[in-house]
Design goal:
Layout (H helix, E strand, L loop, with lengths): L5 H32 L3 E4 L4 E4 L1 H9 L2 H8 L7 H39 L10 H11 L4 H16 L7 H9 L5 H21 L5 H27 L2
Antiparallel strand pairs: 1-2
Helix pairs in contact: 1-4, 1-9, 4-5, 4-7, 6-8
Length: 235
């Protein structure tokens, strides 16, 4: 293991903090763009996205008390076919909106990895130092998947069950899979992508510094954005 390069360490910590914040925001805008495309009123906050469809809400508001009772008891009423068709449409659209967040994050990370390979021969030149790290940090958008899975495991230990509210668990339940399954697959895939970045693009003397900077900056960026800065900047 190499020695710690303090100057590089500080830069890496800042880089990991920045990529953590940017990746979180871009992830949420993945949800936002698809929600808007499907006709929803959508809003991005620091760590989540909300979406509503006024037209759908008007239909629910038009249901009488008797119709609402028949929905709960699964009895027939004149609007039942319309109600079931709308519920299926809402479920399908929710799947697409939910999928868009992780998908955009993975696409950006994959783009960064491709760009890193494309420019690998130039990374040794001093003039390309900044470009090198920008491309590497874009590729590290893939860190979201394993990072979230570790957090999910910690929540599972604390609560005794795997969390069901994250994107991957929602997607898994829609597809009829175990709640943890998609999270696990993406975490493994993310680790592979990050390992490729670490192995191929981080010089051996900087590997220890890179790992330490990732640990401090990754955890620090997560805590800083979701619990301190985010609620103020994007409430």
């Amino acid at each position: 293991m190499g020695e710690i390069d303090n100057k590089l360490l500080y830069r890496l910590i800042l880089g990991f903090v920045a990529v953590n914040i940017i990746a979180t925001i871009m992830h949420e805008y993945g949800h936002f763009f698809i929600a808007k495309y499907l006709g929803y009123d959508a809003r991005v906050s620091y760590g989540f996205t909300t979406w509503t469809n006024p037209g759908y809400q008007d239909f629910f508001d038009s249901l009488t008390r008797d119709e609402r009772i028949k929905i709960r008891t699964n009895e027939y009423f004149p609007k039942k076919d319309d109600y079931e068709a709308l519920m299926k449409r809402i479920k399908d659209e929710a799947f697409m909106i939910t999928l868009a967040g992780p998908l955009l994050t993975m696409l950006i990370g994959t783009f960064g990895l491709i760009a890193a390979f494309w420019n690998k021969d130039k990374f040794g030149e001093e003039a390309y130092a900044l470009k090198k790290w920008v491309v590497i940090f874009i590729a590290l958008f893939w860190l979201r998947a394993p990072g979230n899975y570790v957090l999910d495991l910690l929540i599972t230990v604390q609560r005794g069950r795997f969390p069901l509210s994250n994107d991957e668990a929602i997607l898994a339940r829609y597809l009829g899979f175990d709640a943890w399954s998609i999270s696990f697959v993406l975490a493994v895939l993310g680790l592979i992508m990050v390992y490729i970045v670490y192995k191929k693009f981080i010089p051996d003397p900087d590997k220890t510094t890179f790992l330490l900077g990732g640990l401090i900056g990754g955890v620090g960026g997560y805590l800083l954005w979701l619990f301190m800065l985010g609620p103020i900047v994007m409430p």
